[in-house]
Amino acid sequence: MNAKRIDGVAAATRVLQTVRQDVAELTQSGVQPCLAVVLVGDDPASHVYVRNKVQRAAEVGIRSLEHRLPTDIDARELLSLINTLNADPTVHGILVQMPLPPQIDEASVIQAIRPEKDVDGFHRENVGGLVLGQNVLTPCTPTGCLYLLEQVLGELSGKHAVVIGRSNIVGKPVASLLLQAHCSVTLVHSRSKDAAALCRQADIVIAAVGRPRMVNAEWIKPGAVVIDVGINRIEENGRSRLVGDVDYDAVLPQVSAITPVPGGVGPMTIAFLMRNTVRAARLQNSLPVQPAAIR
Fold first, then answer.
1. Which CATH fold topology does 140-267 show?
2. Tens digits of residue pLDDT in 61-104
3. Dihedral sign, CA of 182, 188, 191, 195?
4. CATH topology for 30-114?
5. Is a pLDDT exceeding 90 seen at residue 1?
6. Which of 18, 105, 143, 171 is the 20 to 30 A CA-CA neighbour of 123?
7. Where along the chain do the CATH 3.40.50.720 domains lie?
8. Record-annotated residues binding NADP(+) (predicted)?
9. Residue 288 has what pLDDT?
């Protein structure tokens, strides 16, 4: 079987081009989409993520604001900043980079962001709206996964999808998005019995569990499409490298399409963060808002 390597970089470029056009239209109408990014502490990875997000925002014409706060900041100070950003009509999206220092409760911070400015899609109102099928801001990585699937398969209705992992960040929201696309959805997790057998029934497998190369060829039905969300750093042959939750080389001969790691799902996350910022700007200005997933 000639498997198709799903190019997340190219897909993200297409999404960002659409975002750039939408930003230009909004700006001409007097609305300049703006994303506020809050970074607490000195975590090196977080600094890289924030730099990439700010760079992408500039590329598509989104104004960005950076707020860099010390590691020992009091939770009340952080919440005060969020309240200020909530009240600022020129700020459309608020993103607090995780993880946060231990003295700050992450759940409280997420719930402090107004739902219409929650471009991560993690606020309980957005989570509930997603489950109910409402047109809300949805988590970026799961929405990116759905976009990749629709690019490969077109119509998803009637497909059987297995999601490995039940996290609030990926597993649960991507299952809800797949249900909205009229898939039959099975969630596989650490308590599932014979997870491999459940996965072998799937037309679509989405792996988001955080265990390097856990999914091997015995888990995959011939011709299935595999979306690998995992990003795991391992030491191999004396060097460090990134691998997914799927054993890419072992699975490749029997799938019809698969995302690599890196270069698959990763680029989609920032692309859909930019798109959520534009959708948030539209929501807050009572302008028409596209559905969460785009084709």
1. Rossmann fold (3.40.50)
2. 999 999 999 999 999 999 999 999 999 999 999 999 999 999 99
3. positive
4. Rossmann fold (3.40.50)
5. no
6. 18
7. 140-267
8. 165-167, 231
9. 85
Do residues 95 and 66 make contact, with C-beta atoms less than 8 angstroms apart?
no
- Can you tell me the distance from the alpha carbon of 177 to that of 197, in angstroms, rounded to the nearest whole number? 23
AA identity, residue 195: A
| pLDDT tops 80 at residue 284 | yes
Catalytic, 53? Answer yes
Known binding-site residue numbers for NADP(+): 165-167, 231
pTM score: 0.95
120 carries an active-site annotation? yes
Cα–Cα distance between 275 and 241 in angstroms, integer?
30
Catalytic residue among 22, 53, 159, 245: 53
**Known active-site residue 17:** no
From 22, 117, 118, 120, active-site residue = 120
* Residue from 22, 97, 118, 228 carrying the catalytic annotation: 97
Distance of CA 144 to the CA centre of its chain: 6
Please write the tens of the pLDDT for every residue from 21-37: 999 999 999 999 999 99
So what's the pLDDT on residue 295? 53
